[in-house]
Write a structure and sequence with these properties.
The chain is of the alpha+beta class. It is built from twelve helices and five strands.
Length: about 400
């Protein structure tokens, strides 16, 4: 059991933070210093320095060790939690300021508490509760995200358990008061120090895993989403639409393809420039996504041509939907001075599919209907002849 005394665990935690600090630098140099990664590295460095100041208490002034050491630890862990909560996102400057203000208040409060003569039991109680609060912030931040993954939910549970351990440690320290010793040889203190050591190991590995997960998600999105509008690209659209087509085949229900193309889009580019042209495409995609059904699949087919697969949609439904699209766009364009006036032509094809090859037939007929809408003068809807409906 001598190898598990609290002093040894504390030293291993200090050493572990330093090793993690070096590993993060190496990792960042090979993958790039993403902004949050910098803060996480700074957090590990501050925790290492803060722990070292506590370890060498006596060799350096006690007041300096307690005040500065705890300040570094509080700030370092706050940076770590900040990065974990916001992994994969770019936090607003106002969010960063709020975090900074809270941490500054924590450090100032602890310093004033020490200068007021609080005994070690009270100080450990306050420190442990602060660490518990940090862990709960991480748990809530990871689990409440709309994009929470299984990995993040597992990490949220881990941080919740750490918070419980810190609360237990705090409740143990409070009644002991001045008789409490930091490196006391007790089972509870040993478990508490082990939990801090485990936090050091797991939180860093979790941050790296979550960072990697974010990269993988972005790569997957880059392969499936259109870079400009954020909607499905042609390949991903066809894959998703074919899955729905299979369902329509089994259920013997109608499906509709909408082919949508801008009218005189070249004039927009030539008159206003390609940047404005891109804004028009983005505007159109955003407006369409706001009104299509959750079961519909919407994608960019190429250039200024878009495609929509609407399952369980009859020809009559398709006409109503197309008219809603045009009415929505007309209203939106009229109320947005930043977007030049534009219109679209729509071609639709509807059928009850029997084989997967009917997807090609639907697209071909919807495209022919779109060409007819262009020939008829544009800014209108043309429906292909309906089969098996």
């Amino acid at each position: 059991m001598a190898l598990l005394d609290t002093y040894t665990i504390y030293f291993l935690t200090l050493l572990g933070n330093f090793v993690m600090f070096l590993m993060l630098i190496i990792f960042a140099k090979t993958t790039g210093f993403e902004a949050l990664m910098r803060y996480y590295i700074y957090g590990k460095l501050l925790q290492t320095i803060g722990a070292a100041l506590g370890l060498f208490r006596g060799l350096i002034p006690v007041d300096f060790s307690i005040i500065v050491g705890n300040a570094f630890v509080f700030l370092g862990i706050a940076l770590e939690i900040y990065c974990i909560v916001h992994v994969g996102r770019v936090p607003l400057k106002s969010t960063a300021k709020r975090w900074l203000h809270v941490v500054a208040a924590i450090i100032l409060g602890f310093t004033l508490l020490y200068l007021a003569g609080a005994n070690i039991g009270v100080r450990v109680f306050v420190s442990a509760m602060i660490l518990a609060a940090y862990s709960l912030v991480a748990a809530v931040g990871l689990s409440s995200r709309t994009d929470a993954t299984n990995l993040r939910r597992i990490m949220a549970l881990f941080f919740t358990i750490l918070a419980v351990y810190q609360v237990i440690r705090a409740l143990d320290a409070w009644p002991r008061g001045e008789s409490y010793t930091l490196f006391t040889a007790s089972s509870l203190q040993t478990i508490s120090f082990i939990s801090i050591y485990v936090h050091m190991l797991v939180s860093t590995m979790a941050y790296l895993l979550m960072s990697r997960e974010v990269i993988d998600i972005k790569l997957k999105e880059a392969a499936s989403k259109d870079y400009l509008t954020g909607i499905y690209n042609r390949m991903q659209f066809l894959q998703l639409a074919e899955k729905l087509l299979s369902l329509m085949i089994r259920q013997q229900k109608p499906a509709t393809i909408f082919m949508i193309d801008f009218d005189y889009f070249k004039v927009i580019n030539d008159t206003y420039g390609h940047t404005v042209g891109d804004s028009v495409l983005t505007h159109f995609s955003r407006e369409m996504q706001a009104i299509i059904r959750t079961e519909d699949v919407f994608g960019r087919y190429g250039g200024e041509e878009f495609i929509l697969f609407a399952p369980n949609t009859t020809a009559g439904d398709a006409l109503i939907i197309g008219q809603k699209f045009k009415a929505k766009l007309a209203l939106s364009v009229a109320s947005d001075a930043a977007i030049p006036k534009y219109t679209v032509s729509i071609g639709t094809a509807t059928m009850v599919p029997t084989t997967l090859t009917d997807m090609d037939k639907l697209i071909k007929r919807a495209d022919q209907a779109l060409l007819q809408a262009k020939r008829n003068g544009r800014n209108q809807i043309v429906q292909s002849a309906v089969e098996q409906c």
